[in-house]
Amino acid sequence: MPHKTSTRRQWLQSSGALGLAATSAVGSFAQEPSNNLPPHVPTWSKGLGKPFLSPAYGVPSPHEQHVKRALLPHPGPYPTASRTPLQSLHGTLTPNGLVFERHHAGFPTIPPDEHRLMLHGMVNRPLIFTMEDILRFPSESKTYFLECSGNSALELKKPTGITAQDTHGLLSCCEWTGVRLSTVLEEAGIQKQASWLLAEGADAASMTRSIPMAKALDDALLVYAQNGEMLRPEQGYPLRLFLPGFEGNMSVKWLRRLKLGDAPWQSREETSAYTDLMPDGTALQFTFHMEVKSVITSPSGGQTLKQTGFHEIQGLAWSGRGKIRKVEVSIDGGKYWQDAVLQEPLQSKALARFRLPWQWNGQMALLQSRATDEYGHVQPSRQQLIADKGMNFYYHNNAIQTWQISAQGEVRNVHA
Amino acid sequence: MPHKTSTRRQWLQSSGALGLAATSAVGSFAQEPSNNLPPHVPTWSKGLGKPFLSPAYGVPSPHEQHVKRALLPHPGPYPTASRTPLQSLHGTLTPNGLVFERHHAGFPTIPPDEHRLMLHGMVNRPLIFTMEDILRFPSESKTYFLECSGNSALELKKPTGITAQDTHGLLSCCEWTGVRLSTVLEEAGIQKQASWLLAEGADAASMTRSIPMAKALDDALLVYAQNGEMLRPEQGYPLRLFLPGFEGNMSVKWLRRLKLGDAPWQSREETSAYTDLMPDGTALQFTFHMEVKSVITSPSGGQTLKQTGFHEIQGLAWSGRGKIRKVEVSIDGGKYWQDAVLQEPLQSKALARFRLPWQWNGQMALLQSRATDEYGHVQPSRQQLIADKGMNFYYHNNAIQTWQISAQGEVRNVHA
Fold it and tell me: Which of A91, B76, B205, B264 is the most exposed place for a label (fewest CB within 10 A)?
């Protein structure tokens, strides 16, 4: 085994594991002060700082401006999505300003007083709701990931993205607040033959998807808030559907219409797009669930390890079917696997942060993570996925990601 | 019993509980469409919206500009804090832009490359850390509330604040990421006689507090991230101490120095301030824990109920000692109490959202909430608190809050 790993406990029990002594061989690190006097007093400790409410709605430090949503280079005339900078994030949540964007006709700025939700079709009483109506219903808050089914799509055929933002950045996780869709449907009275639900957005694309009633009556939400505050405009303000664990575009934003029926509507976004082409030329339709997946975010593509010795390997894991049970990490391209530590509390259909202490010996390494969910679904290797689904599909690439660390410490996206 | 309440289950089982039928007697609410055609198509459904990355770091809707941090009217020449708009928030988290501010000399904008943390005193090896050093340590993420010990202080003698933001807005809750303080202390080697820790900030106030080593070695963190991204400048960027459940000012921001010793330092902020004056003229010092507390945020002061019938009573509960076990709600000023539903997962020393369905009958009501934590500590009434601690103390007012609803639906801050 070419690389030495250790458990957090072993690491914490060892003294000087970070090589913090001034005599350390690993280069620049924490230094001993020349005496016990306080360190140099910098200018910002000598005069008044900024006053309260500068600004009243706070913003990140000017030193964090590199942490932003970004576009991939795009072949067509228009970009199709902006991506979350996963490699710069900590913990499990995505701040609202960095939640990835995917929309089909730009995002509208809707005055909430003028927004309406129409509920019709196979119901006893068709109804039109104002936002005031929606906000009066009993509410609930849940932390869920949201992933575009096209996330990592370009990575199937060859390693394309440079950073984790490029390869996996159509992924975010928020605490969402809203009303159970079932509560609102019951208000209108669901007719017995209703088995499908149409959801339509108020953007100029009229983004439209068909949803099985079983999901609508399970954990689906009509969401108006994310991470404590009202939805952001690009996330569907003032109202969106949210289908936990399902492909992102089904959680229709700027939700204006729900219609109950007894068959799917075969809308554009479930026929010409968002289907998975199989080797025999047929297409899988209604592949709703985002399957179990993970990615190491540190060290990850575009980063550089500045020294050998201790590094914490970190990343995110998720499953559209439930909770993450286990994440294994390999540093030799999948020959040997070791269990990472999962951050508690683990929540169903939410991002889980995993961590593993590691001593880098300065040799080439191939970092991989493999997630398993509570139902025993295991994240496949790229080879396994291709054996199963061929090379012609685009959506739902949940293959294991490999980051290569060179002897110089440079981290690169590769296929292993 | 003048008011009728019901459980969520009872409410959901009743049909038409919201009075949604067009024939409803409760005034304007969801309407039946005149036919099954889609509703009026608004202008924002007819043309392209804003493109991606507008802006790259997203901002709230222009229709949410009223949701902001705010100052209370202040007697002196300078304000002392900005407050979180609790009455406009949903769920349990506070978005970073709305986390309350309390600082003593403005907030500095520190270049992270130039920041240093010095660790000295009763340690085997005094050390100076760069931010790169700190970020290499093993990390953890935890959701904790943060409350200024002066929160609600002005409410003890008479009802003063108009809104929940005024009365309880020195309160926020985030997912914090950092390194265990114990891990960093062990790196330097803790000497046996060390029983207290001095923490000093790099702002111009050199905010300084003494902390018992037992807390430092328990759940204390050196925090560099909140809600997924790096700390905001006004929250201590690039590094702060975080002492879960302790009064806010002890979680020293812009942390520049930690010194181990065998006695507290009797700093300005633990002698002239942040002590609690008792009826006999002595002062309680080192009242670290924020005791069990709660507040109803909806309906709350400054709001107006627009109709009788269904309303969800909602609020937040927290304890600096652990998890919330129970929140009771009264609508008659404390004569009759009913258990609210607590949002899962409940996390130790974090905000808990509670909810109770309620049918308002249009009569005057006195809304109160009473929290109990996992150790059985019960939030006191104002009368109980005064009987215990007198009227001369300022910090640590955790009394039950009363909101009066008039027959016109106006909600007002009162003492009951």
Answer: B76
SS3 for B179-248 is EEHHHHHHHHCECCCCCEEEEEECCCCCCEEEEEHHHHCCCCEEEEEECCEECCHHHCCCCEEECCCECH
CA-based torsion, A10, A16, A19, A20: positive or negative = positive
Question: What's the pLDDT score for residue B6?
Answer: 44
DSSP class of residue A37? S
Residue B394 CB neighbour total at 10 angstroms: 15
Reading the block at residue A212, the tokens are 């099985």
User: Rounded to an integer, what is the distance from CA A154 to the centroid of its chain?
Assistant: 17
Q: How buried is B33 (Cβ within 10 angstroms: 0-12 exposed, 13-18 middle, 19+ buried)?
A: middle
Using the Cβ of A116 and the Cβ atoms of chain B, whether some distance falls under 8 Å is answered with: yes
What are the tens digits of pLDDT across the range B306-348? 999 999 999 999 999 999 999 999 999 999 999 999 999 999 9
Q: What are phi and psi of A250, to 5 degrees?
A: -75, -20
Q: How far, CA to CA in Å, does A99 sit from each of A81, A84, A89, B266? A: 11, 6, 11, 45
Terminal alpha carbon distance of chain A: 17
Q: Would you tell me which residues 140-159 of chain B have a C-beta closer than 8 angstroms to some C-beta of chain A?
A: 140-141
Q: Which residues of chain A have pLDDT under 50?
A: 1-17, 19-29
CA distance B124 to A401: 43
Stretch 288-347 of chain B: residues touching chain A, C-beta under 8 Å: 306, 310-312, 314, 343, 345, 347
User: Residue B186: its chain A contacts at CB < 8 A?
Assistant: 12, 15
Please compute the mean of the pLDDT values over residues B131-145 and round it to a whole number: 97
> A352: which strand partners?
A317
pLDDT band at B39 (very low <50, low <70, confident <90, very high): low
Indicate the DSSP class of residue B127: E
Which pair of tokens denotes residue A293? 């997946």
C-alpha angle B43-B49-B55 in degrees, rounded to nearest 5: 140
CB–CB contacts below 8 A, A to B: 383
Contact across the interface for B136 and A15, Cβ inside 8 Å? no
What residue in B sits closest to A341 (Cα-Cα)? B140
Is B106 in contact with A202 (Cβ distance < 8 A)?
no
DSSP state of A249: G
Say if CB B292 and CB B369 are below 8 A apart: no
Q: What is the number of other CB atoms lying within 10 angstroms of the CB of residue B184?
A: 25
Which residues on chain B are in Cβ contact (under 8 Å) with A238? 61, 63
Q: Give residues 215 to 254 of B whose Cβ lies within 8 Å of A.
A: 224-225, 227-234, 237-238, 254
Distance CA B385, CA B390 (A): 7
Minimal C-alpha gap between B333 and chain A (Å): 23
Q: With residue A227 as reference, give the H or E element that holds it.
A: none
Residues of B in contact with A29 (CB under 8 A): 133
Question: What does each C-alpha distance from A16 to A23, A30, A309, B185 come to in angstroms?
Answer: 11, 11, 11, 11
The label of the residue with tokens 């953890």 reads B140
Rounded to 5°, the CA angle B54-B55-B61 comes to: 80
Peptide bond into A159 cis (omega under 30): no
DSSP secondary structure of A330-381:
ESBSSSS-EEPEEPSSP-TTS-EEEEEEEEE-SS-EEEEEEEEETT--BPPP
Judged against a pLDDT cut of 90, whether residue B187 lies above it is answered with: yes
